[in-house]
Design brief:
five-stranded antiparallel β-sheet; Polypyrimidine tract-binding protein 3; 520 residues; globular; PTBP1-like_RRM2; disordered N terminus; RBD_domain_sf
Amino acid sequence: MNNSTSAANGNDNKKFKGDRPPCSPSRVLHLRKIPCDVTEAEVISLGLPFGKVTNLLMLKGKSQAFLEMASEEAAVTMINYYTPVTPHLRSQPVYIQYSNHRELKTDNLPNQARAQAALQAVSAVQSGNLSLPGATSNEGTLLPGQSPVLRIIIENLFYPVTLEVLHQIFSKFGTVLKIITFTKNNQFQALLQYADPVNAQYAKMALDGQNIYNACCTLRIDFSKLTSLNVKYNNDKSRDFTRLDLPTGDGQPSLEPPMAAAFGAPGIMSSPYAGAAGFAPAIAFPQAAGLSVSAVPGALGPLTLTSSAVSGRMAIPGASGIPGNSVLLVTNLNPDFITPHGLFILFGVYGDVHRVKIMFNKKENALVQMADASQAQIAMNHLSGQRLYGKVLRATLSKHQAVQLPREGQEDQGLTKDFSNSPLHRFKKPGSKNFQNIFPPSATLHLSNIPPSVTMDDLKNLFTEAGCSVKAFKFFQKDRKMALIQLGSVEEAIQALIELHNHDLGENHHLRVSFSKSTI
């Protein structure tokens, strides 16, 4: 394998200057320039946000590694994500491309025990069987009933790190429910609660030891003994993203201004340093901008997230709506085109929709009840502000905690529908891979469940007849059941998804349509 590897991957450095013809997509990825002291778990963590990692081969002498993903689709998503945002390990840039190999055969190779142990630990986390020991001795053991709460200490705090920055970085690994920041033992610390312990484990593996900014603000991450956080106020120091109704706590004597919150203790960059030569002054992150951390001069690669990669819009304290509410109020709809079923399909991309009610007296408004509060938050973040049927849709949390069905005999014109038993829910199965494929609306749609008899022209015609302009189309090379189709605009794609998701293609195949992270 080693010989064929170097041959297949042209170990001659001159070829890596970009003149090498790119390989066609493969689920095996070739990583170059990895630091020599990097652990197997750290390499695996690069692939984790995109899907299951099924094999790993480390060639430490050559500073290279091969990572095998469970599917080509996961590998394509990973390459597309890391193309504009170079990943880093131990603060060094790492280069990733498709390998010529279609799979990794490592059974007879020496020194594979550590890689297999790391893979086993990760798959244990992914399958929810958390009792296996951790990937390597310093990863900590994965215990049954592992906490979803992380304790984060930030060392070398030369820039202020705000709650928003933490939210943006950690959201890459799952839904962040609550964050509390505080100063203890002269160190800036935070407690951060995920919706699921698995997300906490991923984030710890990927982020522990990373710097937020160049050569400073180093993250030290452990599991907390707490299993849940109790947030009383939504402000600079604490935030409960499931409860928008909490007071800001202004006038509480314990509350310091934002800078004091970041540097609340003497000894951590107290005033003499504030404008010291060589350090930028505090950087203000606009609260709701979903700002990319890369806007900070010298920000480091692994934590520089593009704003679309993170549903990073902050929940603004003081907005009306019920704590942890799963009902959304959707306004500014086009009453001539919108139906309960259309809203069910669209919001169903981001969570399981249980009920929809279009308002009888004001048909441009509707209530959409999701399965839970975090799905409502994700749907709101992704869909509010998108154009649909010529109008800009707005979504906020509703004052209502449930959508009431009409009483029998009550005139409703079919405006209220119960979808709680629909077979079309995408997120019914716990741990479904659909959770990893939640992307913002985009002009490129991912199609799947295509029967063998259906051709490219059939699918192009289907979308053209639905009123779309088809710009590009591509079947997945390895799996003709899947394809990407690029339409004229995001609005067209949203409308096509509403109209054609679950479209009957014959042979008992119903088309599955999602937004894609890739472009053609």
